[in-house]
């Protein structure tokens, strides 16, 4: 049997990233591959850590000092010094036929003057794959950001030149990859849509709405800094969404898919309690399985995280996105509005079969 190494953010605290790892593993194993996994930006971690979501405390983002910014100029070398041994060990121990990098928003900028850790990681991974193995490199199911600083442009360009096949999850990513890097990519749905051959989610008849609050500091301000709402305005907007579901006669439960979103959700719950005198329940989640079980209790899902919406669609929930970023806007136009979620898994399988046949 052929062997594949999967590299993505699947050991992060983001349940969406963990779901991507699960779907990618299923896709390759369903295709007859023996698989191993490596954590894209932290390869020294070899198993999924245990994350405690609801005890997380938001950490305010501060402006970096001149000394911190100076140190970040050397971040590429700090990163490889810390991770080189782990990466080489992973590559040498497997004798892989193919290395799959993806899915996830891996071609992304820091949106600051310093270099994105994704740009650093993919440059070193692709370089070491070529040096220490004969494996083909497949970039599968990735999303691409909107703009990049000079160093990021250089590192991503080098990395992409080493890739044998590129497969992106939306037409915006496809156009950016072509325009900025000269790469013609295959377009197919996000890998998290893939259902293993041994599983198919069933619809339910519950009348319950799940509302997923997205981190104000980490996500909302990152993509909306130029014309941002205040935190109170942001919370009032989310409360308006809660009220809309309640007015339709639906029970509402708050949920999250990352540690920072969990912390924001607790703050939002406390804000609603103090300002509106209403107690909103918060789901207790720590695994993808628990998230899937939650979706089995719901009919509607509103969220600002793409993979929270994808998993809800797989469970045949009616979804609505909080359009917080270009990524969500593209996803809404290409996958939510057409409402063909049951077809997306089949399309991924067909595309992958063609990929294997041509390689």
Automatic annotation (TrEMBL):
The keyword Protein transport does not apply. InterPro entries: Polysacch_pyruvyl_Trfase. Keywords: Transferase. Transmembrane segments: none annotated. It comes from the Bacteria. GO terms for molecular function: transferase activity. Pfam families: PS_pyruv_trans. Residues 14-317 form the Polysaccharide pyruvyl transferase domain. This is Polysaccharide pyruvyl transferase family protein WcaK. It comes from Chitinophaga terrae. The lineage of its organism: Bacteria, Pseudomonadati, Bacteroidota, Chitinophagia, Chitinophagales.
């Amino acid at each position: 049997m052929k062997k594949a190494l999967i590299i993505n953010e699947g050991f992060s605290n983001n349940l969406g990233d963990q779901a991507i790892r699960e779907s990618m593993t299923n896709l390759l194993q369903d295709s007859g591959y023996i698989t191993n996994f490596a954590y894209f930006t932290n390869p020294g971690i070899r198993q999924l850590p245990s994350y405690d979501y609801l005890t997380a405390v938001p950490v305010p983002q501060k402006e970096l000092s001149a000394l911190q910014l100076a140190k970040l100029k050397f971040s590429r070398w700090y990163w490889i010094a810390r991770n080189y041994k782990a990466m080489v060990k992973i590559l040498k121990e497997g004798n892989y036929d193919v290395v799959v990098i993806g899915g996830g928003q891996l071609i992304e900028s820091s949106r600051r003057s310093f270099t994105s850790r994704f740009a650093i990681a993919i440059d070193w991974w692709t370089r070491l794959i070529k040096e220490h193995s004969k494996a083909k490199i497949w970039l599968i199911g990735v999303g691409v950001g909107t703009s990049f600083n000079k160093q990021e442009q250089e590192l991503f360009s080098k990395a992409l030149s080493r890739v044998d096949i590129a497969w992106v999850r939306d037409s915006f990513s496809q156009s950016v990859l072509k325009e900025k890097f000269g790469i013609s990519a295959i377009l197919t749905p996000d890998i998290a849509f893939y259902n293993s051959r041994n599983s198919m989610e069933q619809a339910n008849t519950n009348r319950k709405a799940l509302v997923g609050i997205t981190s104000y500091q980490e996500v909302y301000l990152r993509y909306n800094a130029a014309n941002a709402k205040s935190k109170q305005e942001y919370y009032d907007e989310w409360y308006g969404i809660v009220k809309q579901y309640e007015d339709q006669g639906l029970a509402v439960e708050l949920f999250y898919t990352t540690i920072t979103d969990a912390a924001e959700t607790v703050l939002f719950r406390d804000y609603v309690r103090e300002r509106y005198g209403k107690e909103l329940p918060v789901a207790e989640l720590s695994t993808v399985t628990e998230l899937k079980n939650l979706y089995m209790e719901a009919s509607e899902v509103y969220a600002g995280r793409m993979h929270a919406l994808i998993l809800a669609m797989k469970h045949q929930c009616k979804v609505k996105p909080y359009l917080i970023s270009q990524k969500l806007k593209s996803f809404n136009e290409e996958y939510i509005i057409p409402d063909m979620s049951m077809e997306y898994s089949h399309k991924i399988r067909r595309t992958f079969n063609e990929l294997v046949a041509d390689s």
